[in-house]
Write a structure and sequence with these properties.
The structure is a homodimer. By secondary structure, the first copy, chain A, is of the alpha+beta class. In chain A, about 15% of the residues lie in helices and about 25% in strands. The first copy, chain A, contains 10 helices and 27 strands. In chain A, strands 6, 7, 8, 13, 14, 16, 17 and 22 form an 8-stranded mixed sheet that branches. The first copy, chain A, is globular, with a radius of gyration of 21 Å. The mean pLDDT of chain A is about 95.
Chain lengths: ~425, ~425
């Protein structure tokens, strides 16, 4: 598919994240207006809350956009998702007769503050990148036990904490935690020394279910995707995670990009999961391409540095399991799924060092410091570091991008400031 | 403290769960009325939604009870919790001049349908009973590795699934899952064969926090308690839980009793946690009695049996960590806590076989079948079994009880009925 041209001229650039082909959904405010629903187009945002209020553009029900989240729209269902997108695409297309009445509802992105685009119902994080699982498994349990026996049969996941999900731009405070090194006799309570990133995609569940669903149904339930940084305290994790899994190591923050890129926009970029070592059981089998070809990049900018340094470049297509397979697995025991559930893909790492999605892997557990483009070195994050995760599916002369997924590390809270 | 007498005569019985000393909070409907807030007194429910609507009884804000959950009331804060309880206690006390205007707002419990008493924000389950941890650890990892090294230093927990929390009386459908025995070469996908109960208490968080809190603050944040049955699929758990913890094994249902028993009602029953083998780090240290002396019992009634059989009798005071310590730990990494968060205590088992809070432990991994009072035997749950968990703090001539926490096992859904 070529680029679709819009009368919003900035949307026709080859390097915007937000051409007419994308139309991602976010929540924004301006000095004049409270948080509301908007759609990105080039360097502008279409205020769909006022478009709806003035009767110019409707979802099926009334007042779907009279709220600062897209959950009510998701609840309208896939038919409305499609018709709304078709209407918006036509209205914003070059030559549209709607230009004059839409133009007053455009806001410049630089004047907008972004919020979480949806109310996060619950958050689940998976562990579905094979290179990452082997790397981390090797460091935590040794090369012989790197890949757990269940890994090639189940998209392993754990429940995370929805209250920890924040939008891009939110500062992230270094966590305290209980730490115990292998040679320590007793644990101590200190600020985390090995604070890390995890470069992930987040899938947003757009439909309810209350029993097991097939992979095909699961695929239809997914509304869209964001980029996700699953900030991870490696030293807290190493001490706490046996036997019930990560808990406080993953509870500080999970940053997401502010725009929900819909599965409709990503449709041209579908691709297959990799070849299987073991055939999956029927209820998890691939039934078609359900993964996406999305280029991803992580950068780090130390406090005072004049530019960011690249940490890694990777691709979502390194995943072993698609989010449809993850969601199908999530429902097997009858777990009810809700509109607004967020599913983290797991860290996305490729086979080469330059494609590893966490500092744990890049610095091999802190043993091989990374030299940044500024000359500084890093093993894990230092206070003042700013991390940005970006990504886009690359089309023919255009990109379907996600915007920034950015966060700056603040020092740990002082013990005297506890309540 | 002796029993407080009420003009509701059934509340003055020695064996009611709901004397005036209790006043637990629930949500109920009748044939005439939609779900609304109510307070149990003897065998009656006080409709506080209509008491508020008619201006007879108020929380601080307007319309706190014009919703089918107690979250808005919790948000009013501890001072309002105390003043509301004091008003209600006075109004329902023997000799109160309010009797005539309260009486029209009493509903018989037998005409009421109960709902979840609060909107569950997020659900966390802990693993804080030492006898249980040693028993399960022995079965899963052998006696040498029974208690994980971190267990005596941290109240170990994992995030569960809020969408799986249901109110007492909800049927529970046997889950499907991926199973693999130690001698199987590949896993298979089948209905769970080792479906189990876990007898727990659930603590309800009544205040927000967005940074680490002390144990004392955590204790003040807890609004009340329910009994909780953490239905557990042991065969799914054994295959899935390494390395990220239980997931679908705990996602089918978590049943809670319908009445929130407040910390105010439980105040006379406070007790200390047991002696420590290792001194806890400062941020987790006990600062006073924060556990409660609550007698608990689990019964099982097979389909067609004419009476239930006792599975175990235990007590909440077997816990190694209090819910205040669990909540303090939950906040260490900066995890935001919200009104309506539910914290499962972990399975409550004592030292004797008759005090074990799960069938896994009672039947020692299925090796020692349990003979019921009806003569039937059980290792794990069979379809049609009804489990009830009950409990009460025992005062001088009265009990502060929780009502039923009951669920019946339905057969697994047919594969052909998947969507």
């Amino acid at each position: 598919m070529p680029i679709l041209n819009s009368w919003v001229s900035s949307a026709n650039s080859h390097d915007t994240d937000f051409p007419l082909n994308n139309l991602p959904y976010g929540v924004f405010s301006t000095d004049e207006n409270e948080p509301r629903c908007g759609v990105a187009i080039g360097d502008m945002i279409v205020d769909v809350t006022t478009l709806e209020a003035e009767g110019i553009l409707q979802a099926a029900e009334q007042d779907v956009f009279d709220v600062p989240f897209w959950n009510d729209f998701m609840e309208e269902g896939p038919a409305v998702w499609a018709s709304f997108r078709a209407s918006l695409t036509a209205m914003l297309a070059e030559g549209s007769s709607d230009q004059a009445r839409i133009e007053p509802h455009l806001v410049s992105m630089k004047d907008a503050t972004m919020y979480l685009p949806f109310a996060v119902a619950e958050y689940t994080d998976f562990y579905a990148g094979k290179h990452h699982a082997i790397n981390v498994g090797t460091m935590f349990r040794g090369a012989e036990n790197a890949l757990p026996p269940n890994w090639l049969h189940i998209p392993i996941g754990y429940n995370g904490r929805a209250s920890s999900v924040v939008v891009s731009g939110t500062d992230v405070r270094r966590p305290w935690g209980q730490l115990k090194g292998p040679d320590d006799t007793v644990p101590r309570f200190e600020p985390c020394k090995r604070f890390d990133i995890e470069l992930e995609m987040g899938a947003i569940v757009g439909s309810f279910s209350d029993g097991p669903v097939t992979v095909d149904t699961a695929n239809e339930m997914i509304f869209g995707y964001v980029i996700l940084n699953d900030w991870s305290a490696r030293d807290i994790q190493a001490w706490e995670y046996q036997p019930l899994g990560p808990f406080q190591a993953k509870a500080t923050a999970n940053t997401i990009s502010p725009w929900i890129v819909t599965t409709a926009a990503l449709e041209p970029f579908k691709c297959d999961t990799p070849e299987r070592e073991f055939e999956l059981l029927d209820h998890l089998k691939d039934t078609g391409p359900m993964l996406y070809n999305i280029d991803l990049m992580a950068t780090i900018q130390p406090e005072g540095a004049d530019k960011p340094s690249v940490l890694c470049k990777t691709n979502y297509n390194y995943m072993y399991y698609s989010s449809a397979q993850q969601l199908a697995h999530h429902t097997t025991a009858g777990c009810p799924m809700n509109v607004g559930d967020l599913l983290g893909s797991g860290t996305i790492s490729g086979p080469e060092k330059s494609t590893l999605g966490s500092m744990l892997e890049i610095s091999w557990g802190g043993k091989e410091p990374i030299t940044l483009e500024t000359g500084e070195t890093r093993t894990f994050l230092e206070d003042g570091d700013t991390i940005n995760l970006t990504g886009a599916a690359i089309g023919d002369g255009y990109r379907v991008g996600f915007g920034d997924c950015i966060g700056t590390i603040l020092p740990a809270i002082k013990k005297s400031d506890w309540t």
